[in-house]
Design brief:
Strand content: 15-25%
Mean pLDDT: 80
CATH topology: Penicillin-binding protein 2a (Domain 2)
Structural class: alpha+beta
Number of helices: 8
Low-confidence stretches: none
Helix content: 40-55%
Shape: elongated
Amino acid sequence: MAVKKEFNTIFKKRATLLMAGAVIWTLIAANYLLYFSYLNRTKYINAGYKLAMRQGYYSAGRGRILDKNGIPLAWSERFFDLFLLKPPARPRFKKMLDNKLHHIFQDIKPCASVLPFSVIYYNIPPNKIPRLEQIIHEFPDLKIIPRTERVVVDHPEIKKLIGKVEMRDGLLCGTSGIELQFNQALSGQMGSYTVMLDRHKNFINGTWHLVKKANPGDDITLQSSCAELKLKSGGK
């Protein structure tokens, strides 16, 4: 009986300690829950908001260069390319992605053979983009990335007169010729926006907010016609 009584005493002590530990743990957990979910909720929501929010800049377009009759000699065109940041790791997903892309682009090469961050299709036709957006939700490593190119009338002397441009921080900037001479007027003013990104660095719908509206670049009109420029250079 004495042994049984001693055993019951030890059992009760241990049970009491376990119960006390459980109560203390529950109080600590409740305290943290109250602290993070109520008392400091706004602070941590704002911190998370700042981590997910990004500021971006955009251009409303570079102005055209025209001859005296209003014929464009240089202008900008926008294209869209399909990038694959990382091929799917599993063969089943590679085959699935290849099949889906093959339904859209008949001449596309298998994704399994491309390197990370590869362009897998140049100059996507505009009518294909809505179908691609559906696939991108399933395969976040696919990205549609815009690209702006400067187009100049196909004549060597006119091209030399117009000059060249290069992309700097997302903006076409003149580096020679008329493009450089009138770069500020042609460039316009950049606009800015804020947007929240998901873990795949994609825009979250409904979070895009315009901060500053972009102003398009001005058109520059030359004092000579396209034909006169060609004649001056001895061209046809």
